[in-house]
Amino acid sequence: MDTSPARQSYEELKQQIHLHNHRYHVLDDPLISDAEFDRLVVELKQIESEHPDWVTPDSPSQRAGGAPSEKFEKVRHPRPILSLANAFGAQDARAWYERIRKLDDRVEKAAFVVEPKIDGLSVVLHYRDGVFVQGATRGDGEIGEDITSNLRTIRAIPLRIPVNREQRVENSQSDGQFSLFSNSILPNYLVVRGEVFIPIKDFETLNQKLEEAGEKTYLNPRNTAAGSLRQLDPSITASRPLTLLVYQVVYSEGGGVPASQWELLDWLKALGFPVTDVARRFADLEPAIVFTETFATRRDDLPYEADGMVLKLDDLRLAADLGFVGKDPRGAIAFKFPAREVTTTLNAIGVAVGRTGVLTPYAVLERVNIGGVNVERATLHNFDYIAEKDIREGDRVLIKRAGEVIPYVIGPIIELRTGAEKPYVPPSACPACGQPVEHIEGEVAWYCVNAACPAQLVRNVEHFVSKGAMDIAGMGIKIVEKLIEAGLVKDVADIYKLEREDILEAVTKKDRKTEKEPPGKIAENLLAAIETSKRQPLNRLITALGIHGVGETIASDLTRVFPSLDMLMETSKDQIQMVEGVGPNIAAAIVDWFGRERNRAVLAKLKAAGVWPTASPSPVHGSSSGALSGLTFVVTGTLPTLSREGVKGFIEQHGGKVTDSVSKKTSYLVLGEAPGSKLQKAQEMGVKVIGEEELRKLCGK
Ligand code: IVH
Q1: Active-site hit among 14, 45, 71, 117
Q2: Is the CB of 552 inside a 6 Å radius of any atom of ligand 1?
Q3: What's the CA-to-centroid distance between 270 and ligand 1, angstroms?
């Protein structure tokens, strides 16, 4: 080999670039700036243009992505690339343990390694004498496809191992080989397996860029990673934010490989491979199960999508001796998290009419189970979203349901189209009242502007009686619908005219069976709640009116400046805009609302019924406000900035009450990190869950 100083400094430079690449893409701990790194690469390319014969496949310059190919060549894997059997809970995991314990006594004393199960694509990477020479997809487990050029573009994949040459020097042995651990020599042929994926943040950035460019966005990180890897043109792969984590040695020749999974992860890391940093080793199964189960609630803390955890026997010899069933090794099991994304058929697109007349499309789905919950409806956000994603009736669609989020349609699976799908045309008339719909300039939403629209009235009344507004307990949606249907409630003020007989009528026979209370009692309670609501403070009544853009916070802000509805009704847009937090659009909406004949008539009726609270003006800039008055809070978990006492003080200062347990009277559960059982209770009781930020927003902070 050429030992000239020029050649040597070229080799040095290559090594340096590998090292910085590793620091940046694997360790996430760069030593030099991006600009400095780019300069090194320019220098390298300069040398290579002068000495093209020096360039080897492990040169950092080879990452850019070579020429497109016609098709992928087939690669036979040196050992079968196995899959994993699934466990859907602790019982399954224990059953797995029992099965293998019966097969081999050593299992009794075995330790376990738990690793995240990354939702990406399995790849197989071949290294000869430390150089990355070939990479393949899993394929059918026996034969995969050669995607070497594509994999080369992924910077987390070392083109040469060990990346850290210092280590090699420190550990070098007399025979010229090197060891990373006292008893292991780097194999001259090493085949490792890992998972290629796109980190969630990078995926979001990618989609944001596409959206800004007016292009179609991707469905989810996994599908995008899969599509990116199977590109015949590697420059496309190079443009996608792919990365990987390595977790297995598939095959090796010469040298030694650790026989413990735990040590293997360390060993792979020392060679320069990216390895998960959330793996844990357990001496017994039970704590491993507990770790796995608690991790399910923390899966969103991971920077990538994980669909479960993998429970592995730490002893790799024992694992190998146990063999496999079909394609699943006995020595490991995938402990799956509840699924959050599923595919189903979009049977139809329905349209709901909201309180303010907003038309909201929703998906009517072929029923599907997501994480233990049956889902038949999902949101489609708005009509623009349907158009952007080209969602059609009859499509196979991907649905996501995560945590507190309402299930939504991510998008159609275009590949599964049969041609029978119908492109969607938004309605030109309100589906509830048949009146033409309108679009407000600058907004995505379409509105039904017919004030007498029955669908709007139902939502209006529902909002008027809701907890944050007039808080009329017992006035459920069914009763509201019946009262409107019977013509007893034509606007919200009619609520105060209701009599016992009217309510008895509305509680139908069918409901009577399911209700625990006798109808007479229901009517009494409801009438009492209606009566009590007359004493709600002004901010509640303003919220209850349902003016576009006026929620609880703004209603409270308005109350502080305009202590009566008589004042607010006669105020100009400019004066309203003086209130902190109220912009021109909301101010205009308020003036518009009070200017409408129909609304004025409702207000007159409310006043006549004695629903006309006034507020005692409070200091606008004072530290305390009554923004939370009448509201009851329960706090669970650790909040980002407020301590337990701090949050209590904050809520009380703003007029709210804090109690210890969730009940029907709870207005909000304030949720922090690592919540307790209160969260589940709140969810079961339908109590609104908010974070610290939203709590502050309620107070206009
Ligand atoms: S171990 C014999 N470990 O999950 C080894 N697999 O459903 C078998 N996966 O095909 C695989 N993260 O693509 C293993 N830490 C991890 C993993 C992992 C993701 C994937 C892998 C496999 C699939 C099994």
Answers
A1: 117
A2: no
A3: 21
Nearest C-alpha neighbor of 252 from the set 315, 162, 189: 189
The pLDDT, as a whole number, for residue 643 is: 76
Tell me phi and psi for residue 22, to 5 degrees: -65, -45
Residue 618, pLDDT score: 47
Q: Is 147 in contact with 179 (CB distance < 8 Å)?
A: no
Candidate CATH numbers 1.10.150.20, 1.10.443.10, 3.40.50.10190, 2.40.128.260; the one for domain 445-615: 1.10.150.20
Cβ of 89: how many Cβ atoms within 10 Å? 14
- Per-position b or e across 245-269, b if 16+ CB within 10 A of its CB: bbbbbbbbeeeebbebbbbbbebbb
User: Which parts of the chain have pLDDT scores under 70?
Assistant: 65, 165-184, 403-404, 508-515, 616-625, 701
Residue in 246, 256, 262, 248 with CA at minimum distance from that of residue 313: 262
* pLDDT at res. 513: 54
The pLDDT score that the predictor gives to residue 621 is 38
Query: How many residues make up the chain in this entry?
Result: 701
**Quick check: is 117 catalytic?**
yes
SS3 of residue 382 by DSSP? coil
**Residue nearest ligand 1's atom 12 by CA:** 117
At the top level of CATH, the class of 632-698 is alpha beta
pLDDT at 401: 87
563 preceded by cis ω (within 30°)?
no
Q: Which CATH superfamily is domain 5-55 in?
A: Helix hairpin bin (1.10.287.610)
> In 3D, which of 311, 352, 353, 358 has the Cα closest to residue 332?
311
Q: Say what the pTM is.
A: 0.65
Residue 620's pLDDT is: 38
